[in-house]
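Quick one: co-fold with farnesyl diphosphate.
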Amino acid sequence: MDNQNNLPLHLGIIMDGNGRWAKKRGMPRTFGHKAGAEALRSVVDECRRLGIRYVTLYAFSTENWKRPAEEVSVLMDLFDRYLDEAAARLDKSRIVFLGDKSAFPDRLRSKMEQLELDSRDIDDFTIMLAMNYGGRDELVRAARAIAAKAVRGDISPDEISEDTIARELYTYPAVECDYIIRTSGEQRLSNFLMWQSAYSEFYFTDVMWPDFGVKQLHEALDEYTHRKRRFGGI
Ligand code: FPP
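Sure, here it is.
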């Protein structure tokens, strides 16, 4: 498989089912998140190998703070470890965080900022981690930024275009998301990449995220290569 074979330029993944995967094994939900972090590593490595340019992973939504403190704390530890690994492999991928970083513990937030800074010149492979991210929140943020420009007189309301909005999104310049995979049998967007998914193709699988590996990724990508994308045309 390579990009000549019509692979998505920008792949989005909603990594769902960690908790149920663990429960089925009589284990705590956090065991599922640990296994989910392993799945993430192998799937991201394979995306890089295949030449997919952008991979966006839904790691933590604005709503996930409502989970029990113990679960949130384990997720923060997993993020922390992942950031350390990414920092140690800086030549490999650009890392961008989608979402409001200010809500994270200071230590984590400064690692996130440093990693973004240190990896910003890598342009062949970008991992976008949606953390404390919500699609509506992203649009509210964009509206505020544009309104502030209008108040300053830097833009007039009739100059506001789709491009004006796209430029204020966390994912810019990767605006379109070509393909979105969601695991665990759920079939909804859950506030992920709302603007960017306007023309996305979707792939839903019953496989729980910790069981989603290279084989399952290839199956999903094979399916994408057979889809005909018309973007509203015929
Ligand atoms: C959804 O499963 C998963 C999450 C809310 C967290 C995703 C996190 C990881 C894959 C772990 C590591 C991430 C990084 C970036 C290292 P769920 O808990 O909602 O599962 P359920 O629907 O079965 O309850």
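If it helps, The pocket of farnesyl diphosphate is lined by residues 15-20, 33, 36-37, 40, 59, 64, 78-79, 82, 129, 184, 209 (CB under 6 Å).
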